[in-house]
Structure formats: C-alpha cells, structure tokens
C-alpha cells in the first residue's frame, strides 16, 4: 500500500501556501506517496476532516492566494481531549507522515507532537511577518510587503494633493519587518516598529521638516507598537496567548498625536488583511515551491522533527525545536539603514 502524507496549513493564511502545498504534493508523488489535506489547520487533525490532494487538485494552484486547505488558529494543546483525538485520527487516517505549514504557533504544536508523541512531522515555515529566526525569509512576506508598498505610494499621492501627513498601519505582529521594508521601499519619512519605542518629539520634528519640503509626509506604523502605557485584557488573547491586535488601532492613535504635535492635518489608513490576499509574487511562488518540495524530501528521508529553512539561497532542514525557540525581530542595524533616508 502507498504511504500517505497529510498536509495542513495553520495560523494566518498568506500568499505562497498553495505553491508550497503543490510543491510538497508533486514531489511526494515522485516517491509514490498518496497525499491528503487536513482541513483548517490542527482542527483538521482533531476532527479528522480531510480532502484529497491528487494531481488534479494541486497541478494549477500556484497562482492562487489563500490556502486551498483552509486554516485556523486551533491549538490542540489548549483544548481538553484534543491531543488524544489528534493521535487517534493520525492512526485512523493511515498517515505515515505529517507536513505542517505554519508560523511559530503552528510549528510549536508540530514540535510538541514530535518530541512528546513521536508523530513523524516535518515543518514548513510560513508567515507574512517574516519573524521565524531559523530561516532567512518566509513566503508570504514578499507579497504582503509588495502590496503595502503599493498602498504607501497611493497614500502619498492623495496626501500630497491635500498637503496632509499620511499614516499607513501595516500588520506584522511583534516583529517590524513588514513596516520596515515598506518604509524603505516606499520612501517613507518615518517608521514605527514594535522593537523600538516611538520617540514622538523626534518623529514630529522630522515630519514637519519633510512636510515643508514635500507637501506630504508618510509614516509607516507596525500594528503592535506601543504608544504610552497599555493594559492587555485577558479576552484580547488568542489560543496561543497572542494579542488580538485588530483591537488596538495604533494608526489612528498615532494620527491624533501627530496632528496635535505638528498642527498638520493627518489621516491614517489600515491595510490589514488586504496584505494577505491576492496572487503570490514571483519570489513567494518560487520559495513556496522550493520549501514544499524539500518538505516531501525530508519526509521521504525520514528526517522528522525538522523544519525546512532558507539559508542564503539554499533550502535546508533544521531542527523544529530550535526553529521555534526564538522570534526573529528587527535589529538595530536595520533600523539604522532606514534612518539614513529620514533627512
Ligand atoms: O501572523 C500573521 C498576521 O497576519 C499578523 O501580521 C496579524 O497580526 C495577524 O496575523 C492577524 O490575524 P487574524 O487573521 O487572525 O486577524
């Protein structure tokens, strides 16, 4: 009987997941494996919900946004009785291996299933936040940031016409990579990221200067920055203990502060989930494809407990446990690079 690989996608979706599913399945077919998709992340394993992943299901999905498998932020380790259900369903479905595609949360669960229950798992990193320390880039980031740069340019056009300060609030959770790259590539006048406190006076002084010169000033703000003190209520946390950042609205709050301090008319826009939709860029299609292929190869070689990672231009396997131990946040040197352009 053919060996069977289960594939799941968990956490926030991002462009590049379908290329990765396709890459993994197409390579697995080379080894004579049958592939099956688990629906909506870990929830699919808890409930035993699947869909077939045959050649006709994956052959032409490389340009599709989202994930054909659906996703959720289900954490079986946080729901009573879910872990035994996962173990039982793994057996019932006749799976020989599991490929889990996700960010730190989904892969953290994968790592626990491997180390605590010896489930044969391979991880594939995905996140538009680009915050996984073991890999140089994650697919999803390039597409999301390309969309944000386009939004930044549009905001500058309208801002210039009205002589306004424009704020673009982007996603990225606790890492400022999306905001930083958007600011750099979109020629922004300031960037606020969660790794560093917002220096309101310095920012406003510079905005006034840039506005005088350009008749517009653009500030890119990452969703998780802290302005002043803030209490995080219990109900604002998801199953993985992360803040539900949609409730915070930092762009609007930043706009109030900037308008008050500079006396310049200011408007804020939140790009939000628009960043996660649409067709993946060339970079994300190729990266998704490569890491998907490598995941199937690791499974075939029996290298479980590993995660696929991009190191330089080479795709390698690294330990899942180490890969999920630490977040990759923006270091001082990248912030300094951005500051070169705030003149
Ligand atoms: O982790 C990816 C991400 O897009 C973050 O940048 C953002 O904070 C979060 O997901 C949004 O999650 P949801 O889709 O559950 O609102």
Give an overview in words.
- The protein is an alpha/beta fold and 343 residues long.
- The chain folds into two domains: 180 residues, Rossmann fold, CATH 3.40.50.450; 134 residues, Rossmann fold (3-Layer(aba) Sandwich), CATH 3.40.50.460.
- Helices cover 41% and strands 17% of the residues.
- It is built from twelve helices and eleven strands.
- The strands form two sheets. Strands 3-2-1-4-5-10-11 form a seven-stranded mixed β-sheet, with helices on both faces. It has a four-stranded parallel β-sheet with strand order 7-8-6-9, with helices on both faces.
- Helix 1 runs parallel beside helix 10.
- The radius of gyration is 21 Å and the shape is elongated.
- The model has no long low-confidence stretch (mean pLDDT 94).
- The structure holds 6-O-phosphono-beta-D-fructofuranose.
- The site of 6-O-phosphono-beta-D-fructofuranose has 12 residues, from loops.
- 6-O-phosphono-beta-D-fructofuranose binds next to loops.
Task: Describe the protein's topology.
Layout: E1 4-9, H1 17-30, E2 34-38, H2 42-47, E3 50-52, H3 55-58, H4 82-92, E4 97-102, H5 104-117, E5 121-125, H6 141-162, E6 165-170, H7 177-185, E7 190-192, H8 200-214, E8 217-222, H9 250-262, E9 266-270, H10 282-300, E10 306-311, E11 314-319, H11 320-323, H12 332-339
Parallel strand pairs: 1-2, 1-4, 4-5, 5-10, 6-8, 6-9, 7-8
Antiparallel strand pairs: 2-3, 10-11
Bound molecules: 6-O-phosphono-beta-D-fructofuranose (F6P).
6-O-phosphono-beta-D-fructofuranose binds at residues 12, 103, 127-129, 171-173, 223, 245-246, 276.
């Amino acid at each position: 009987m053919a060996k069977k690989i289960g594939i799941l996608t968990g956490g926030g979706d991002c462009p590049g997941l379908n290329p990765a599913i396709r890459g993994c399945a197409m390579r697995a077919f080379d080894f004579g494996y049958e592939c099956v998709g688990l629906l909506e992340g870990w929830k699919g394993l808890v409930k035993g919900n699947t869909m077939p992943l045959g050649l006709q299901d994956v052959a032409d999905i490389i340009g599709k946004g989202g994930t054909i498998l659906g996703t959720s932020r289900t954490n079986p380790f946080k729901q009573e009785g879910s872990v035994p259900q996962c173990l039982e369903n793994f057996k019932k479905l006749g799976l020989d291996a599991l490929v889990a595609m996700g960010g730190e949360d989904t892969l953290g669960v994968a790592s626990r299933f491997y180390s605590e229950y010896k489930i044969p798992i391979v991880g594939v990193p995905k996140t538009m936040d680009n915050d996984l320390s073991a890999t140089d880039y994650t697919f999803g980031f390039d597409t999301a940031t390309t969309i944000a740069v386009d939004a930044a340019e549009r905001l500058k056009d309208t801002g210039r016409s009205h002589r306004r300060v424009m704020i673009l609030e982007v996603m990225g959770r606790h890492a400022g990579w999306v905001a930083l790259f958007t600011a750099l590539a979109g020629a922004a006048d300031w960037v606020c990221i969660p790794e560093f406190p917002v220096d309101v006076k310095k920012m406003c002084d510079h905005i006034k200067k840039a506005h005088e010169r350009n008749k517009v000033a653009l500030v890119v703000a990452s969703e998780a920055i802290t302005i002043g003190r803030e209490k995080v209520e219990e109900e604002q946390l998801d199953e993985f203990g992360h803040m539900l950042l949609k409730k915070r609205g930092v762009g609007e709050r930043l706009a109030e502060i900037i308008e008050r301090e500079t006396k310049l008319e200011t408007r804020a826009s939140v790009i939000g989930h628009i960043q996660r939709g649409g067709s993946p860029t060339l970079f994300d299609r190729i990266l998704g494809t490569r890491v998907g292929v490598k995941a199937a190869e690791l499974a075939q070689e029996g290298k479980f407990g590993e995660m696929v990672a991009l190191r330089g231009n080479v795709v390698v396997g690294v330990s899942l446990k180490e890969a999920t131990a630490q977040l990759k946040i923006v270091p001082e040197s990248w912030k300094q690079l951005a500051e070169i352009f705030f003149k």
